[in-house]
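Practice set, problem 2.
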Amino acid sequence: MEEGGPQGASGAAQEARRLDVSENGCSRFRPAYRNHIWAWDFIFDRDERGGSLKWLTVIDEFTRECLELLPARHLISLDVIDRLIVLMNGRGVPANIRSDNGPELIAKAIRNWLARPGVGTLYAEPGAPWENGYAEAFQARLRDELLNAESFANLAEARPSLVCGRANTMRSGRTARSGT
């Protein structure tokens, strides 16, 4: 088969994905200071009655702090914007936000809103969760150390005031860095 044929091109694309050649991936575009890159994603769980819990997680990739851990039944792009406003008012505006391509995270409303304060967006390639590695590592620990270990009776019991402090002790799998 010719090297430039359709299957050759597909193999090259798979190899590129495996090697993490995306400019937005966390192994290529690394955090250099506090608020340089925030990473966000969603993780799903259930309460004791089987109701869905959709958790928005936001971490600072440099300090590895959990900035947001918001459980809700449903979250849409406007809910995410509301939380970002609160975060940015309290912590400052990040230079970039890295995420996968989930509909709530790439929605036009979010992209337009992030452009106003000049926040860059770093989207991981579809099918390449390792490109959002800080968020994925944090969520794996969140699942192992909190969601699989705790049982929430309802949404109110899962509120961040009860669990965010504990999540910050998990970080994203490495020792936290100073924010200065």
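Problem 2, part (b): a different protein.
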Amino acid sequence: MPESEIIAGHHIEYSGMKFALFFLGEYVHAFAVSCIIVTLFLGGWRGPNLFGLTVPWLWFFVKAILVFDVMVLGARDAAALRIDHLMAFNWKFLVPLSLANTIVVALADRLAQALGLAMGTWPWALMLLAFNLALIFAALALVGSAGRRARRAAESPALRGRIAARVGAWRCVGARRRACAGDGWGALTDPSAGREPAEGKWSLV
């Protein structure tokens, strides 16, 4: 979203209808992406038969609106992400996940056909849903495992020491100050952290 960047120029330079047009373009883009997601990953206009009636355009727009709602809610509720973190998440997780999803759905469809389940019926849809849910749980398990490994690595004393060395040695400028500005980093490198340092022992490097 443009407003999550460091400088959102249209927030400053425009107001009224011009400002509304920027947001209209943003939401049109989000809805277009939702339509692409529905076409590629959610079966497009296909849907179960309800009382023997299938309305392809209605199923397509229902799916697109649901995806659009998830995108908007996620963008408004999630914390702001740095662009490098976002790109790393995209290339290292979402792209492999989308490829895995394509393969899993294709295999599930072949399996459903081998079992004699006709496309568009409820048993066929439930089988595809079960395979997709299994893929989602596997992906979340991988994310949780990676997060736990990163947290354990961040909590290790060796890594904290490297972080402290990279940030710089924080040192106090006099004995009268009980703590310096970098007292949190000093606690990682100096065993006497928490006690009043000696005169002239620390200075900001």
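Answer key, part (b): DSSP finds seven helices and no strands in the chain. The chain has three domains: 1-80, 82-155, 168-205.
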